[in-house]
Design brief:
Blueprint lengths: L1 H34 L11 H8 L1 H27 L20 H7 L4 H31 L5 H9 L6 H12 L2 E2 L4 E3 L1 H7 L12 H29 L3 H9 L4 H12 L1 H16 L3 H7 L14 H10 L5 H29 L3
Antiparallel strand pairs: 1-2
Helix pairs in contact: 3-15, 4-15, 5-9, 5-12, 7-13, 9-12, 12-15, 14-15
């Protein structure tokens, strides 16, 4: 009886083993069929398309870089080359120049108008820029203490920045103009009438320093809006705890201004001085607006600037392009040196 049970168990065990093997074979046979239903993997894209996709940011920048290359980089390179081409005449394919040298620089520097234009440029810049920055600082401090109609005052003060420079120059000429002759003056003009003076400012009878005063007056007035906007924004970021501490210590308003306010906003003041000096050396439209294209009522370029002199070289004819390029490089060198000096001074005086 025991032997029969043992034989039955062995038969059952063999059947179970066969059943397991059949099940595993069926699963193995089903796996390939199930794998055929999976979606195909995407093929690897073309190498060119892959590079374009990875560098698509540069593709969006190509139009901008093309404009910079045409209208910025090439003019700079062309100016640098033209400055050293003697008797350079553009578009003259037979004889565009007489070789390379420093003759254009010698011609520009020894020009009869150069020294006077250089002095006018320095005088207008180093008088108008610090003066306009100081006035803008005082106005900004006053605006920050005004709560009512503050936005209205800001808009009014910013309007000159949006006005055409030549149009405002013509208005200034009208304000300072004396109508009539030296022997028979019909009216002394608006400015003389307001201040009760009898000064020739912009006509042929005006002195050189009177005309320079008018240009400086215009430059200061035109430079105020942008400086006020920048300084007023800087004042809003000053920590008011410094003012509270100064008030407790009994500090005067002048002490608070020069010992607290100015050091805290000195980075913005340094920025305005640097950009103002660069803009001052490029002064041209103000003088043309007041005194006309000849830049002087009595003689040509009496109130001329370096930029005005460069335009004169360009307007004299094609053979002066090299001299104009040389004068541009001289102006660039002057601005670069003064900017570097200003940065060195700022490192000692500016508090970041």
């Amino acid at each position: 009886m025991a032997e029969d049970v043992k034989i039955v168990d062995e038969n059952n065990l063999e059947e179970e083993v066969e059943l397991v093997e059949e099940t595993s074979e069926n699963q193995q046979s089903e796996e390939p069929s199930s794998s055929l239903n999976l979606p195909e993997e995407p093929k690897e894209p073309n190498k060119v398309l892959r590079v374009l996709r990875s560098q698509k940011g540069w593709l969006w920048m190509i139009p901008m870089l093309a404009c910079l290359a045409i209208f910025t980089f090439w003019p700079i390179i062309n100016t640098l080359i033209s400055a050293f081409r003697v008797n350079y005449v553009p578009f003259n394919l037979q004889k565009p120049d007489d070789g390379f040298g420093f003759q254009n620089f010698a011609t520009a520097v020894t020009d009869g108008y150069f020294l006077n234009s250089l002095f006018n440029t320095f005088f207008f810049t180093f008088v108008s820029v610090p003066l306009s920055t100081l006035i803008a600082l005082l106005i900004s401090v006053a605006l920050s203490s005004i709560k009512k109609l503050q936005g209205l005052y800001q808009s009014i003060l910013f309007l000159p920045y949006l006005t055409n420079a030549l149009a405002i120059g013509a208005v200034f000429y009208t304000m300072f103009q004396v109508i009539g002759t030296t022997s028979n003056v019909e009216t002394w003009g608006l400015i003389n009438t307001i201040f009760g003076t009898h000064v020739h400012w912009v006509d042929a009878d005006a002195s050189t320093w009177a005309m320079r005063f008018v240009v400086i007056f215009y430059e200061v007035w035109a430079g105020l809006p942008f400086k006020i906007l920048i300084l007023f924004g800087a004042l809003q970021n000053v920590n008011k705890q410094y003012y509270d501490a100064a008030k407790i210590d009994g500090a005067s308003k002048g002490t608070v201004l020069w010992k607290i306010t100015v050091p805290l906003i000195s980075p913005m003041i340094s920025y305005l001085l640097t950009t103002g000096i660069i803009g001052g050396f490029k002064a041209y439209s103000a003088v043309v607006g007041i005194f006309g294209p000849n830049m002087g009522p009595k003689s040509d370029y009496e109130m001329g600037t370096i930029v005005g002199l460069i335009y004169r070289y360009i307007g004299d004819g094609g053979n002066q392009i090299g001299v104009a390029s040389a004068a541009s490089l001289v102006l660039f060198a002057i601005i670069m040196v003064i900017t570097l000096i200003n940065q060195q001074i700022s490192k000692r005086r500016v508090h970041y």
